[in-house]
Amino acid sequence: ESVPSVQVWCPKELKRSPRDITELDIVLAEFEKIAANYRQSIESNVCRKAIDGFCSAFKDQITTLIVEIQELKNMKKKNAKAITDIKKKRQRLLQLKEELIGAEPKLIKLKKEYAEGQERKSALRQATELFTSLRELQQDCLDYAEKNSSQKVVYGTSSLPALLVESRRILGAERHFQNINEKLEKALTVQKEKISKKR
Prior knowledge:
The protein has 199 residues and is mostly helical. It is 81% helix and 0% strand. The N and C termini lie far apart (127 Å). Pfam families: CENP-U.
């Protein structure tokens, strides 16, 4: 406990407050009072010098102990503060780790969405280029038809209209053959039934 009447002994290089008072401060203060009173009661200079030497040596020992105790106390405070800071940083690190783990699925989802977006962007760009090319081709055809209006337009076998007509004809033939095939299968079935009945 702090004692207000006791003066805190403190060297210049060491910070101390009234809360840092120890029993050694009280002992040192009382010893200096007793030594001062006793010195005044002695008339012999030799005895006074001896008392001064003893008091100085005793004070050095006490103050050395006070400094060591105060340094140890300060060190404990620093260690306690460092431990508290480490705990706070560790807690914050765990919190950040949890946030990172929680954000990982979101990151994967965002990467997937980004990749899909890039694919859509690429497809849109290709489609835009295709439509632009078709528009340019159409304009070229219109320009050509306008310049050569007297000539009859003839489509080659590799042209788009010719291919469409050809595909319609092929699809029509395919349906026709399918009908014939179904009729043949029915006729064969009827024929097999007649043969089986005869047997």
